[in-house]
Amino acid sequence: MDDFYSPVAEFYDLVPRAHPEGEAALRKILAEVDPSAGPVVDIGAGTGRTCRVVAEVLPSAKILACEPAPAMRAVLTHDVVADEDLRRRVTIVGEPAESVVLPDSISALILFGVLGHIGPEDRRALWDRVLPRLAPGAPVLVELLPVTRPTALPPMELAREQIGDLVYEGSLEAEPIGGDLIRMTSTWRISGEAAPTRVVRNVSEWHTFGIEDLAEETGLAGEQLTVQAGVLRAPQN
């Protein structure tokens, strides 16, 4: 998987602060998980926001955090090392979703903000490895873009936050580029009297689909939780 995220890693944690619905949905579903069934696997763990949620909601869970982007993984490692509880429970690996070594049994799988970067063939290969390992009733939590088919997205606000004397403003726009793909451009503007204005742009590609498409791919029951978050559930037996 290409490293789309390191160039904008410094802004990553600003977005969920502006859009907390996904984290709320994650907390609600995780509260139903039995961590004795196996580790929680967090693919695309980023800077660790989802790992911290898992650790808080499931205080006995082991967590496998997969993050291939070096800048994101550096922040994740920093946070885990600084917390004795996380250091005991969180294992950090740098392999992408396509090749990460999975535990024999998975109590929950988290795929927040990552699944659209994986093409159909690699996604099918991931399901082939994941599905037999899901514990009965285990949830697969996904966070997608709010578009299920290729379409142009006008600029929309990602976040606006003041940190010290600087204001951080982020936006996202997208355009179809063929097949199921869209090209996304995120733009971050950092301004204020403390420093010259800085603009950071980042381009990535995203395969468009929705929860219903994933339910058909996997054979699991699917449920839309928020505009962007959804859950697939393994059978109870």
TrEMBL record:
It is an enzyme of class 2 (transferase). GO terms for molecular function: methyltransferase activity. SUPFAM superfamilies: S-adenosyl-L-methionine-dependent methyltransferases. Its EC number is 2.1.-.-. Residues 41-138 form the Methyltransferase type domain. Keywords: Methyltransferase, Transferase. GO terms for biological process: methylation. This is Class I SAM-dependent methyltransferase. It comes from Nocardia fusca.
